[in-house]
Design goal:
- Helix content is 40%, strand content 14%.
- Helix 7 packs parallel to helix 9 (175-186) and helix 12 packs parallel to helix 13 (357-369).
- The chain has 13 helices and nine strands.
- The termini are far apart.
- By secondary structure, it is α/β, with parallel strands linked by helices.
- The protein has an eight-stranded parallel barrel with strand order 1-2-3-4-5-6-8-9, surrounded by five helices.
- Residues 10-18 have low confidence and may be disordered.
- The radius of gyration is 21 Å and the shape is globular.
- The structure holds (3S,4R)-3-hydroxy-2-oxopiperidin-4-yl beta-D-xylopyranoside.
């Protein structure tokens, strides 16, 4: 057989294998929605492989970066909705449940937000006004079209206390209540979330429970907690995952996995964090799979994904969305964080868009439960 013919047969086999498997969104019907975070190349359909996977596999989408403050509201007098309009149009075209991420965060927010006209730290009233204007303008623009907003992202420290962000320091701890109120006023039907990482660890989980209770006591309607789910092979344990879902279920809210990926690379730090500001120096031994993931690791990743999905399926009445943070391995932020330039394998589709063994393992967890 000529090399060209051989390659064609291989390509056909790949496509056929993909077509046979049920799509994630169909496999988990009756359980939860399944989605992915998109970059512009995907929602503009320039990345034909990526966009194809999104259309066939997912029924909910999140914006990886384009609805963050620095993109959508780069200057005090200027909003920029070019990218977000396209993102929402893509979601509507393919009847996706559309997520907005995120309104209040300490990262990817320009410095001007916290300064007054004189360049000094802005006062509480000034910042509240800015927050209200931002939330009402952005949420209002997509009223009835963006179905869910991550209103506040990462307000907690690892010990469960409130993070000393400029929002907390300048406004005080009612910045959370205010943000939820502004979002609710802008779109009363949108589902509003508190979103964070490492909530599976007990001190942070207890802090998040206190935070949600405070919001509820203030009369704010919190639809769900978003567990980011930037997971490792050994963390969180299945017990931690289970206990975390239960803790928030007890508060009467949904528990959704909003940014799922599983890092198989050697850990650069023992910290269980997804802090985007973390930056660690590159070392060859921390980037061992440049030419592909070994079979035993592929299998271990598949098992790890299946174990986690088994827990998610157990709570199908509480979990109503699982979103992966990216589509193909090559898109993942974990190729650049916390070390730049690594080759990472955290998702269900490889760089060529082929489903990995983890894909089938995940789909099988739904079959077992039905
Ligand atoms: C990440 C994006 O994936 C990167 O492209 C960007 O450079 C930094 O932010 N928690 C979050 C996400 O809530 O918004 C972050 O996304 C990943 C961690």
């Amino acid at each position: 057989m000529s090399i060209r013919k051989f390659v064609a047969v291989l390509a056909f086999a790949g496509v056929a294998a993909h077509a046979q498997t049920p799509a994630l969104k169909d496999a988990f019907k009756g359980f939860f929605r399944v989605g992915a975070a998109l970059n512009p190349a995907q929602f503009e359909e320039r990345d034909t492989i990526g966009a194809g996977i999104v259309r066939s596999q997912f029924n909910t989408i999140s914006p990886e970066n384009i609805l963050k403050w620095e993109v959508v509201h780069p200057r005090a007098d200027a909003y920029s909705f070019d990218a977000s309009d396209k993102y929402v149009a893509f979601g509507e075209k393919y009847k996706m449940f559309i997520i907005g991420h995120t309104l209040v965060w300490h990262s990817q927010v320009p410095a001007w937000v916290f300064k007054n006209d004189k360049g000094e730290t802005i006062d509480r009233e000034g910042l509240l006004k800015r927050l209200e204007d931002h939330i009402k303008t952005v949420v209002g623009r997509y009223k009835g079209r963006i179905n869910e907003w991550d209103v506040v992202n990462e307000a907690l420290n690892e010990d469960g206390t409130l993070r000393q962000s400029p929002w907390l320091k300048i406004i005080g701890d009612d910045f959370l209540v205010k943000a939820f109120q502004f979002a609710h006023e802008a779109d009363p039907k949108a589902e509003l979330y508190y979103n964070d990482y490492s909530v599976e660890n007990t001190p942070k989980r207890e802090g998040a429970v206190r935070l949600i209770k405070k919001l509820q006591e203030a009369g704010v309607k919190v639809a769900a907690i978003g567990l980011q789910g930037h997971d490792k092979m050994e963390w969180p344990t299945l017990e931690q995952q289970d206990a975390t879902i239960q803790a928030f279920k007890a508060l009467g809210i949904k528990v959704n996995i909003t940014e799922l990926d599983i890092d198989v690379l050697p850990q650069a730090t023992q910290q269980r964090t997804a802090d985007v500001s973390l930056s660690i120096e590159a070392q060859a031994k921390l980037n061992p799979y440049v030419n592909g993931l070994p079979e035993d690791m592929q299998k271990a990743l598949a098992k790890r994904y299946a174990d986690l999905f088994t827990v998610f399926c157990k709570y199908k009445d509480t979990v109503d969305r699982i979103t992966f943070w990216g589509v193909r391995d090559s898109d993942s932020w974990l190729n650049g964080w916390p070390i730049r330039g690594r080759t990472s394998y955290p998702l269900l589709f490889d760089k060529d868009g082929k489903p990995k063994p983890a894909f089938q393992a995940v789909v099988d967890t739904a079959k077992k439960k039905k």
